């Protein structure tokens, strides 16, 4: 019987090891909403981190759609040297190679394109982007840690791109200087403590106070607590420990900064200073957040006694300024402890706010506040947007809706519902809240057709 040669089917492992051939001299035709260069070749589209439109590059395909940038033959005019020395390793800021003015233009273009594609709408008027510092701006920094027991080596830094590797750094160019000051002292202190082996991430916060939050798998011993108290007093900082399940709240270590009269953590918003707790949502950039609140207020134009519904209210960043302007705010937030802080903030300023806890992505039938009538609605959801809430809002038929978004794709999806419910997009504005990164913050004003 004749025997025929048949090649063995490659195993999964073998397939993974076989590299697709590099693609040479490819033209980058666009920049997607995740800040990746877009190359359209004969074999389909590829997304290339670090590449810019009009560049000619060599790339190495990775997986089905991604590719690694190998070489740039022709650079874009907008290409600049990244300001951060860790740029090639760190996964944090992925647009540093693009000039800041071009980053802003790109972000506005992305929002316009997504709104057009998914909602068939454009703003009647785009305001100039709201901007502030493009470096040294972040007031919140989350650091990864690793303790190698065998080698007794401690690592503290940010995660590398799409990896668990930690990039140790002595300075993060987008963090405010007050946070960078802690990197070296923490790197010295923590390996001396027993708790180093049960340390998860560390969060640094710069608001009216400076705070360090240590995520721990168990409660630390007394000697470690004492060492942390000494550190807190020496460095003029509050140290908080987060030892329980992820949904529990961190607690402060009793030290000079947490037992004094002004110990309650507070942040500034337009015309007010608000209580918050580590673990609560906090806008990334202090001054720009206030400018954004000011713009939302200008668009909402609150009248004395007017009933306004605010959704995804957090601890009151928009709520209190709106109420100080005389409006009667019904504010909804999904984290019960933040609702309490919001209500307390309202009481301190003696303003008219009714704060309720609700999961806005559940049916609204059971919520008494949803049965009332509101002339204006403000919403500021997380990146997932408001897929259910937006339909409920449309049913309420307010005259004006101000949608604050940190994800243009979900904004575009939700905008479609508003357009189909008789709203037009009157104004829009990019808020440059996350310079050097692909992340986009955007303010939009929808008005019901007359
Ligand atoms: C982007 S933050 C905005 C907070 C606030 N507006 C501010 O400026 O600080 C989104 C808020 O929505 C809340 N949230 C997220 N999903 C929610 C849901 N399904 N129902 C109610 N609130 C939710 C979060 O807890 C968070 O406080």
TrEMBL record:
Region (Disordered): 1-20
Keywords, ordered alphabetically: 4Fe-4S, Iron, Iron-sulfur, Metal-binding, Methyltransferase, S-adenosyl-L-methionine, Transferase
Protein name: 23S rRNA (Uracil(1939)-C(5))-methyltransferase RlmD
Source taxon at top rank: Bacteria
Active-site feature positions: 406, 406 (nucleophile)
Organism annotation: Pseudidiomarina homiensis
NCBIfam families, alphabetized: rumA
Family: Belongs to the class I-like SAM-binding methyltransferase superfamily. RNA M5U methyltransferase family.
MF term (GO), any: 4 iron, 4 sulfur cluster binding
Record-listed S-adenosyl-L-methionine binding positions: 283, 312, 333, 380
PANTHER family (UniProt xref): 23S RRNA (URACIL(1939)-C(5))-METHYLTRANSFERASE RLMD, RNA M5U METHYLTRANSFERASE
Pfam families named in the record: tRNA_U5-meth_tr
Any GO BP annotation: rRNA base methylation
InterPro entries per UniProt: MeTrfase_TrmA_AS, MeTrfase_TrmA_CS, NA-bd_OB-fold, SAM-dependent_MTases_sf, U5_MeTrfase_fam
């Amino acid at each position: 019987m004749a025997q025929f040669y048949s090649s063995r089917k490659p195993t999964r492992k073998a397939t993974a090891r076989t590299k697709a051939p590099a693609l040479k001299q490819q033209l980058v035709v666009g920049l997607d909403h995740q800040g990746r260069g877009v190359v359209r070749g004969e074999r389909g589209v590829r997304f290339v981190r670090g590449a810019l439109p009009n560049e000619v590059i060599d790339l190495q395909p990775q997986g089905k759609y991604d590719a690694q940038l190998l070489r740039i033959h022709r650079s874009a005019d907008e290409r600049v040297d990244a300001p951060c020395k860790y740029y090639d390793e760190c996964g944090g800021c992925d647009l540093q190679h693009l000039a800041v003015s071009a980053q802003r233009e790109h972000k506005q273009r992305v929002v316009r394109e997504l709104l057009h594609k998914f909602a068939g709408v454009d703003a009647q008027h785009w305001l100039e982007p709201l901007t502030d510092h493009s470096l040294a701006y972040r007031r919140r920094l989350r650091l990864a840690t690793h303790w190698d027991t065998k080698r007794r080596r401690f690592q503290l830094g940010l995660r590398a791109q799409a990896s668990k590797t930690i990039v140790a750094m002595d300075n993060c160019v987008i963090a405010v200087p007050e946070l960078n000051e802690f990197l070296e002292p923490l790197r010295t202190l923590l390996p001396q403590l027993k708790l180093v082996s049960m340390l998860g991430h560390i969060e640094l916060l710069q608001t009216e106070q400076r705070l360090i939050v240590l995520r721990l798998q168990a409660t630390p011993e007394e000697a470690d607590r004492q060492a942390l108290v000494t550190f807190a007093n020496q460095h003029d900082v509050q140290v908080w420990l987060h030892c329980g399940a992820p949904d529990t709240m961190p607690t402060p270590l009793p030290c000079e900064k947490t037992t004094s009269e002004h110990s309650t953590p507070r942040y500034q918003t337009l015309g007010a200073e608000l209580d918050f707790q580590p673990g609560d949502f906090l806008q990334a950039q202090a001054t720009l957040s206030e400018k954004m609140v000011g713009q939302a207020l200008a668009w909402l134009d609150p009248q004395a006694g007017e009933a306004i519904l605010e959704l995804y209210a957090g601890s009151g960043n928009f709520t209190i300024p709106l109420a100080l302007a005389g409006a009667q705010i019904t504010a909804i937030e999904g984290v019960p402890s933040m609702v309490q802080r919001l209500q307390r903030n309202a009481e301190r300023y003696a303003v008219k706010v009714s704060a309720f806890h609700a999961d806005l992505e559940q049916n609204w039938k059971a919520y008494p506040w949803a049965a009332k009538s509101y002339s204006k609605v403000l919403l500021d959801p997380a990146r997932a947007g408001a897929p259910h809430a937006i339909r409920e809002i449309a049913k309420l038929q307010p005259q004006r809706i101000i949608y604050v978004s940190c994800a243009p794709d979900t904004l575009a999806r939700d905008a479609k519902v508003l357009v189909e419910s008789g709203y037009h997009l009157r104004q829009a504005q990019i808020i440059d809240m996350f310079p050097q990164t692909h992340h986009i913050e955007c303010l939009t004003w929808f008005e019901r057709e007359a």
